[in-house]
Amino acid sequence: MIPNSTYRRSPFRIAVATATLLVLLTACEKNDASAGQAKLNDVAQQAGQKLDQAASYVGQQVDNASTATQQSLDSASKPSINIDPSALASSAHANLQGAASATQAALGHAAAMTGTGLESAGRKLQEWSSQNAASSAAPSDASDAQKQMDK
User: Fold this and answer.
1) Which of 40, 47, 82, 97 has its CA 20 to 30 A from that of 56?
2) Going by C-beta distance under 8 Å and a sequence separation of 6 or more, which residues neighbour residue 19?
């Protein structure tokens, strides 16, 4: 909180008023020097008190501004992100389940493709073996080879 301009001039006005009062009192009391000196001392003491009050007021305003500034800095330095551990764990668990499901589907597809490829390779090998055995061996040998393949 910044004090308005009347508060800033307040200590100055007090000092000016005190000085003016001092000048007026000394002008009025020219004839009586001892009485003037006593009054001058009283006015000086009052002026000192007013200046002390003004200094105290300024000190309070500085303290208030310092406190407000420190509070602003403290609130600005606190993180504004709040992380809920249970929500974080739940999200991580859901992500892991999704990844496991996707991995299982990919492995199943790979196994199916592998099985189909092996089945096709086995048929082609049987066809090749039977054609090769029929063309290169005697009829009795071909039937033996076919029996071996059927086992």
Assistant:
1) 40
2) 47
Query: Which residues 6+ apart lie within 8 Å of 3 measured at CB?
Result: 61
Q: Which helix (H) or strand (E) holds 55?
A: helix 33-77
> CA torsion sign, 66 to 68 to 72 to 75?
positive
Distance CA 14, CA 10 (A): 6
Residues in the chain: 151
Q: Which residue has the tokens 């509070």?
A: 71
> What pLDDT, in 10s, does the model give residues 87-137?
888 888 888 888 888 999 888 888 888 888 888 888 888 888 888 777 775
What pTM does this model have?
Answer: 0.32
